[in-house]
Amino acid sequence: MNFSANDQSLEFAQKKDSDDPLRNFRESFCFPQSESSEGPILYFAGHSLGLMPKKAPEYIQEECEAWAKFGVEGHFKSRHPWVSYHETLTEQMANLVGAKNSEVVVMNTLTVNLHLMMVSFYRPTAKRFKILIEPNSFPSDQYAVDSQAKFHGFDPKEAIVELAPRQGEECMRESDILDKIDELGDELALVMLGNVNYLTGQRYNFKSISEKAHEKGAMAGFNLAHGAGNLLLELHDWEVDFAVWCSYKYLNSGPGGLAGCFVHERHHKDPNIPRFEGWWGHDKKRRFLMEREFKSIGNAEAWQLSNPPIFQLASLRASMDLFEKATMKALRKKGDELTSYLQFLLKEKCHVVTPDDRGSMLCLKIEEGSKKLLESLKSKGVIFDFREPDIFRVTPAPIYNSFQDVYHLAQIFEEVL
Predict the structure, then answer these.
(1) Closest of 320, 317, 275 to residue 297, by C-alpha
(2) pLDDT > 90: what percent of the chain?
(3) 113, 261 in Cβ contact below 8 A?
(4) Fewer CB near the last or first residue (10 Å), C or N of the chain?
């Protein structure tokens, strides 16, 4: 989006908010209260922990009451029976990531799901054993791929190939990613990237990367920790093999919230794909017969191990109901406008690392006095995220942030800088 000098005013931000068709969703969330500053908190940390939906305690309390009233019979007699509670989120989650209902399941936490997926989709041989990861990938992803390589008897220094931007550049060029896949060729077993890099905010083109990986005989899996609830996704059409994501960031499910998992339908009934199995992945119609032999559900739910925590599902449902009403298309449109406005207001004040191909997060590099600046911003009621040594991560989440939030943040930045 293009902005002019006249747009650097509170009146402009107020007009944008009054015209915003999503403005009322803000009232569905709880904002932290300031302890040390005057005025309301400016919350820009939705990429780290989303705000609590006001309905979350109500949904959780409903299941507490069902527990008190029914005990174990709550599995079948609760208003939302626990035995199938996760299924109330399937269609909403599938819509969110561009998948078929059969390809999505809510279960576990992110890195647990990543390991479960690599059990199935990282099957190295003596020749094809390498995993391609992004530069500055989140440490948990690095630990996961390293440990998987070691589990299969490979040295991570040889098995894990980390992409690197060109000299003097901060982000990857798409052509360089594709060229690296070509270069690795039949040594490449798995491409495992994030949808949005957590340290630069760069978005990767899953469609072209998946196509190139498959052309070379490799699998393509992705971590959507900063993509789900942030970007428009089409996992099925992009031919992604698998994807995992958390729900406590953009999806506002609460600290430690449950994660999501996508497995493309072409893999559901492939007998050659190994999988760790548990009774919640067993045929639902026969689950309580307690049979000795595992019989797969036949879709992404077959990768489930145990029955999920109901209170966490309830909390996530409170947020997913809002996303379903808002729609990702409308949220992405507002998210682009909000983030572009933030970039417009800050571009003369600090260095923006994030390229234009991004979601609702800007990574700002402020090398001089970053720690002092961090404390100054916090003292003025701004909540965001800082990564050593000099990266400020700022997210205007479109489901609850406003243009006035962005305007006031820019004013505070100018004041403290």
Answers:
(1) 275
(2) 84
(3) yes
(4) N
Give the per-residue pLDDT at 37.
Answer: 56
pLDDT tops 60 at residue 215: yes
For residue 108, give Cα distances in angstroms to 83, 116, 235: 16, 10, 20
Q: Which CATH architecture has domain 5-47+327-416?
A: Alpha-Beta Complex (3.90)
Q: What is 61-323's CATH number, 3.40.640.10, 3.30.360.10, 3.30.450.20, 1.10.580.10? A: 3.40.640.10
**Residues 52, 30: Cα–Cα separation, whole Å:** 6
Per-residue pLDDT tens over the stretch 294-338: 999 999 999 999 999 999 999 999 999 999 999 999 999 999 999
Q: What is the pLDDT of residue 7?
A: 86
Which token pair is 388?
């050593």
DSSP 138-203: -HHHHHHHHHHHHHTT--HHHHEEE--PPTT-SS--HHHHHHHHHHHGGGEEEEEEESB-TTT-BB
Q: Rounded distance, CA 66 to CA 14, Å?
A: 44
> Region 352-358: what's the mean pLDDT?
92
CA atoms within a 13 Å half-sphere pointing along the CA-CB vector of 354? 29
Contact 31, 41 (CB under 8 A): yes
Look up residue 396 and give its amino acid.
P
| Rg, C-alpha atoms of the chain | 22
Encode pLDDT of 45-54 as tens digits: 999 999 999 9
CA dist., res. 181 & res. 60, Å (int): 46
Strands (E), 27-184: 29-30, 42-43, 52-53, 104-106, 130-133, 160-162
Count of Cβ atoms closer than 10 Å to residue 321 Cβ: 17
Whole-structure pTM value = 0.95
